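The methods section describes the discrete structure representation at length, but only in general terms. An entry of this sort, consisting of the sequence and the corresponding backbone structure tokens, reads as follows.
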Amino acid sequence: MAKRILKMLIPALCICIAFASCSTPTLFVPVDSLLSPPLYNSRYEGLVREFNEQTGSVATFCNPSGGDNLSAINVNDFDGDGKEEAVILYTTAEDDTVAHMSVFDYFGNRWKFCVDFAGYGDKVTGILFEDLNRDGYSEIIVNWNYSGINNAGSFTVYSTKSMNMTFTEVTTVTCDISCAVDMDGDSVKEILYITSEKNDSAISRNAELIKMGESEFELMGSVPVDPNVTGYVACKSEKANEKNPMKVYFDANKSGGMMITETVYWNDELQALIAPLFNPEEGANTASVRYEPINCADINNDGQIEIPVQVPYENNNPGSDDVFYLTDWVYFDEAEPEYYVRTFVNTQDGYFINIGSINKSNLYVRELGSSNWNSWIVCSASRSIGGDVLFTITSVPAEKYDAGKYSSYVTVMKNSDIVVCVRINQEGTDEETIRKTVMKLPS
């Protein structure tokens, strides 16, 4: 179904839907102060006016903090009639501890309020529009959370059977993280989520998959996952292929700055949900442990997601307090892990060094820094410090970067925050090799 995100910008004390949460006060003002096209479509004057009349008070747009739909106002054809409907997420001045969702329909050349729901938190962490039961009507899936409270997430599914947009709440599930994915390959998405339960002093966690029938959900499968996490930070999925089923990857923080990735997929033959990296005997996922905050990513652009796995580097620079880690990017299939590439990762500056592209042994890295720059010096030595410097990677804040000063460097990464450039110190190492060796860390 066609979908558009409505973006409206107006001057001071304006409607602004570009911020990431409900925390910034933003007032609705008369529509005659709206900017002219293309930033503003006059058709939505009536939507704003109807919203103001309905709330009857100062309201604040509540932009989702994640997902594909990052606007507080989303326009979508929910019922397939070729006409637009709208959803607005907001809080009110009377009670900013609860986020709301209002649904509006457009017919008879005017916007009409249909229904309003109070949510299950003061933040919206995501909103989706999916036909979950193939009845021709899109469900609305909203992820809620409470500010400053861990493990306070949930999702609610709203559904309608009528073209007059009489949505009802179908289910609300408390969870740590969730996503809508087609796990069983029938071209209809299910909802996969991770939920936790505390018994006495122990915490258990399960990944659960639910599928929507005509008007309610049924549990398809449940599988234990690592309970020893402090929170989930990301969810990614990859498409199925002839060799592997579709997999979903949940990146999670653990204590001490460590991370893991939990992998979950649906086994059609067993009709069961599988979490292959969780070891029931150990009660943990130890296969994907790393010591730095690095998310999984499709690092080689082959459509499959690799997981970063770390061990301390055996050639850490003697006499230095800095500990560098070897980061192996691994694809876990149903059998043994497949190693793609071995790297050094600079998590602070967002790049990695492809060790496999360096034709040297006994590498070590030294780190230098100041308020204006940070450098990794990559060296090659036999047994001691003082070996050959291969190249120096320098990260400079964008506002302090001087192209003339760094004219002898190869620029490998540049954005509004930082410039990463490399100085070649050894003959035989050219710019092409450097660009294959030092690369931006995938998000």
